[in-house]
């Protein structure tokens, strides 16, 4: 039997389908998607999960989408393919304040202090209230991280 080819778009749609059909989190769907992602290179995995995390076109499911992708990000540890400050700034615009996995992932990859320094820099540059709230929440979540 031929192996199914999983394109980036197909995997993204599968994540959305899992969230839409099972609500916040379904362990079986999570395991299946994680298994597919583990077969891809790290850059593709990051790109797929970052796309889900920054999608503003699904406001009703943003929390569940970000929770699902955030768990995968933290568990699979793909390498961030963007410049770190740009990656964090892109997330702050649409970040759900309840998703601890995203700041934890960046602390795990780059160190808590590096992430905190970037947040401090962004605090002075960004004026949007949503982004400021996101920075405060990231800092709060990062308190739980080990250095």
Give a description of the structure:
By secondary structure, the chain is an all-alpha fold. The protein is built from 8 helices and no strands. The chain has helices spanning 8-22, 27-38, 42-53, 62-76, 84-92, 101-110, 112-125, 129-142. Helix 6 packs across helix 8. The mean pLDDT is 91.
Total helical elements: 8
Average predicted local confidence, pLDDT = 91
In whole angstroms, the N-to-C terminal distance is: 48 Å
In percent, how much strand structure appears in the residues? under 5%
Choose one word for the global shape. globular
**What letter string, H or E per element, gives the SSE order?**
HHHHHHHH
Q: Which helices and strands appear, and what pairs or packs with what?
A:
Layout lengths: L7 H15 L4 H12 L3 H12 L8 H15 L7 H9 L8 H10 L1 H14 L3 H14 L5
Helix pairs in contact: 1-2, 1-3, 3-4, 4-6, 6-7, 6-8, 7-8
Features:
mainly alpha, 147 residues, 8 helices, globular
Short description:
The protein contains eight helices and no strands. With 147 residues, the chain is mainly alpha-helical.
